[in-house]
Amino acid sequence: MLISMAFLVSLPILAVFGYLFVPATEVWGHLAETVLSDYLSNSFWLMLGVGFGVLLIGVPVAWLNSMCDYPGRRFFEWALLLPLAMPAYIIAYTYTGMLDFSGPVQTLLRELTGWGYGDYFFPEIRSLPGAIVMLSLVLFPYVYLLARAAFLEQSICVLEVSRTLGANAWQSFIKVALPLARPAIITGLSLALMETLADFGTVQYFGVSTFTTGIFRTWFGLGNSAAAAQLAAMLMSFVFILIMIERWSRRKARYHHTSSKYSAIPKYQLKGKWAVLAVISCAVPLILGFIIPVAQLLYWAITVGEQSFDQDFMVLIGHSLLLASLAAFFALGLALLLGYGKRVDSHPSVSIAARIAAMGYAVPGTVIAIGVLIPFAWLDTQLNSWLKNFTGESWGLMFSGTLFTLLFAYNVRFLSVSLQTVESGLGKIKPTLDNAGRSLGLNAFGVLRQLHLPLMKGTLLTALLLVFVDVLKELPATLILRPFNFNTLAVKAYELAADERLADAGLPSLMIVLVGIIPVILLSKTIGRSRVGQQGSLDKESA
Amino acid sequence: MFKSLITSILAFSFLAPAFAAEEVNVYSARKEKLIKPLLEEFTKESGIKVNLLTGKADALLKKLELEGENTPADVLITTDAGRLYRAKTAGVLQAIESETLIEQIPENLRDPENEWFGLTYRARPIFYVKGKVKPEELSSYEALTDEKWKGRICIRSSNNIYNQSLLASMIAASGEEQAGEWAKSFVKNFARPPKGGDRDQIKAAASGQCDIAIANSYYYAAMLNGKDEAQKAAANKLAIFWPNQAEGDRGAHVNVSGGAVTKHAKHKENAIKLLEYMTTKASQTWYAEKNGEYPVTAETKPSELIQGWGGFKADSLNLSALGENNAEALKLMDKAGWK
């Protein structure tokens, strides 16, 4: 059962790997001679850059917001999640609009100084470093979110112990809290990096050739789907190796808490220049990653946009909400099944199938969508010829072209998000608890329902809302797999932007962000409450 | 909660496209904004309901291929000839007989075997900054490889189909070797690594980053017509130059937006009606006015703004060649280091 579930979800990815056996030597020769080294080096630097970027922003603010108190903390706690609602390609458009050579900032500079092109230095926004900054600004919340949850869930006892052993606040952060939060931070990091690898819109717009743009160029431009799929398979193998290295480096270490004593974290009150510094370090990523781009979108929508808010927009919002919530519940259900299944039944094939399925997050949405279409189109053909035998007429497509296929594709694409979140949640629960439950007569399902689910409430909501926001922003799979006459906010924003009507795209983009804000706020509130020992329903268990 | 969720999923998953009698299903690479109003007009006039799925041309084509004979799509609309050629080679289109289409559309803008038809066309001329470049200095795409243009040309990435088509047309005109040499020298004259879309090239030229931009004609028209004053000002700094107009030369590069009936169309008659409708004067005028494209039919004139640019000789190459030479063009661009 479990294996077949995991297998089903990994089918589209396996379909891509299937192309590995189709020879495409001639094209590979051409690629190796010309552009492959560019793809490799750009993708590598992009990942490295975004990796540093999200850690540099995400971890410190997570620590600040879980351990310290300073003016405005309550606001920053949730506001720092807001960039999550901003699709990467949209932030890229807004910053290009502002900072490009022909944009208002540089034009003003030239008017003030009388300089011309080449007379002065100004960082080029549409470049590899520019792409790194853009992606870091919208992806750091993954690290912030997971790291903060981990810091909040840490038993204060271990920190107190480290302090009594003579470590100062800094040392206990580096030596105790950080290593304990490592699985969560790595999870956040790997989500950010996988999304970076799958990004197409930003790098395409910035003219940075990466693996992703290369896949499309090879596939459609050169018309060679085999070589393109092999590039995609290479990309996935790369991710797989990274994940394996990380797992290996953790080896036997376990991260669940050994003490059941929890007490509220006494927040360290920051004063004076330290408080100012804290506010600045939280405000900068928020302003750059959210407030400025939103202001630009708003400006476009109001002044030059020709798109007005009408009845059609309500329909778009409805469609986006429907897809995002259905997909979020599906993905959570599947993640629980696989995550818990692995805990109960440690058969290696379950674990491998889950791993393969979870690679979908690093694969460009279009590749996933085609990967989903291959088995479904096949199924439709079989079903049709079977039905034809009975009824004598053709039934057309049953699966492809319905919302079911699209929801399935979302699951393949975003399972990694929900699965990793659920797994890190389960990892923190001591296995002895399972044993205790079982010995008291609960079956495996009972343990999950009566012990794990209540304990993981925060984790579950996190998984749910992350997928929700991701689906809201998702474009390529939605574009290919949605039914006739069915549009979403993301599709609308893309269509206008792709026609180079950036100003008109302002309004739908703004709507994506606004719809995404609600779950983001909800998310933050839940995490704040989920800390054991805090007020809320979990008091009983921890008391 | 859960029960209602499941019912709604079931309800939706079986909302498979229904096959009512008077319907036609369209896969369109043209964005909704630039096709839906026309389709609504068509429905009003003919009573045929149109179901629309927009998307990227390559993905729609792949979808058509995978769906095979079960595909619900009757019509495929793209915004370039190369993709129509690819669709034809993939075997997902069918030849149709329509006097209306064959009589009205010039021969080089449709498939020789009547599998696809150009519905509007657009040119890819050279734009120069007034005052910095004299039109006499310009002559043809080929001449842009001259030393004097070093560091003065803006053009978008070779990932873009319009650039691939341009080079494909040059392969057709002068052969692979010469086209390859051209690409190599042309890239050396770029003012900056290619980035952004066509409008960005015009903006960059207007603000002084380069003196020459290559872009599709309708983007320029949209900048002049739009509400954005900054874009209008930028476009006004540039003027259009029609390349390759000399006696005996082939003319400026053009491409089409076009349509085709799919091989397994379930509503073939309606599909043909729709394509024919798109060549009526009303539709042709709509595209001319709304998006600054050139009508394919002789009876319709371009918009006033575009007529003001003057007439030009268009490359009379059959556009199938753009598709045939596409992969080769891309390889030449890779070799030339055209990002």
UniProtKB/TrEMBL annotation, chain B:
Residues 1-20 form the signal peptide. One of its GO terms (cellular component) is outer membrane-bounded periplasmic space. The keyword Iron applies. The keyword Acyltransferase does not apply. It holds the Pfam family SBP_bac_8. One of its GO terms (molecular function) is metal ion binding. Gene3D superfamilies: Periplasmic binding protein-like II. InterPro entries: Ferric-bd, SBP. Fe cation binds at residues 218-219. Keywords: Iron, Metal-binding, Signal. Belongs to the bacterial solute-binding protein 1 family. This is Ferric iron ABC transporter, iron-binding protein.
